[in-house]
Write a structure and sequence with these properties.
The protein is an alpha+beta fold. The chain has one domain: Nucleoside Triphosphate Pyrophosphohydrolase. 22% of the residues lie in helices and 29% in strands. Strands 3-4-1-2-5 form a five-stranded mixed β-sheet, sandwiched between helices. The longest helix is centred in the N-terminal third of the chain and has 13 residues.
Length: 119
């Protein structure tokens, strides 16, 4: 989750379901989760993040796969984004109190974990 003031950046991918989710992606071989999160955010929305806060991890067993989703939060000073049009169809900053109703179920779980931690 990338946060600027009281807003959170969400994206819609060019592939998969047409739902809002948080920027992120897969971990490459021999890459740690924090490095992967920083790389994926830079690739998808052009934001360089430094300090990440751990928001927990989730298990996902969609499509008969077993994935661990590492969740982080980063604070940024600007809402400037530069989307990778091959991967990102749309990016938008939503107020934390008015998130879209068509969020992915995983994104909803991530946000609930974030709220529980009071970040």
């Amino acid at each position: 989750m990338i946060e600027c003031k009281d807003e959170i950046l969400m994206i819609k991918n060019t592939y998969g379901k047409n739902v809002w989710t948080f920027p992120g992606g897969g971990i490459e071989k021999d890459e740690d989760p924090i490095t992967a999160a920083k790389r994926e955010v830079k690739e998808e929305v052009g934001i360089i993040i430094s300090d990440l806060r751990d928001v927990g991890k989730l298990s996902n067993e969609r499509e008969y796969k077993r994935d661990t989703i590492y969740c982080f939060q980063a604070l940024v000073d600007t809402k400037l984004v530069s989307t990778n049009l091959n991967e990102i169809k749309e990016a938008f900053w939503f107020n934390k109190n008015h998130l879209p109703s068509d969020m992915s179920s995983i994104s909803m779980q991530i946000y609930e974990n974030y709220e529980k931690q009071g970040l």
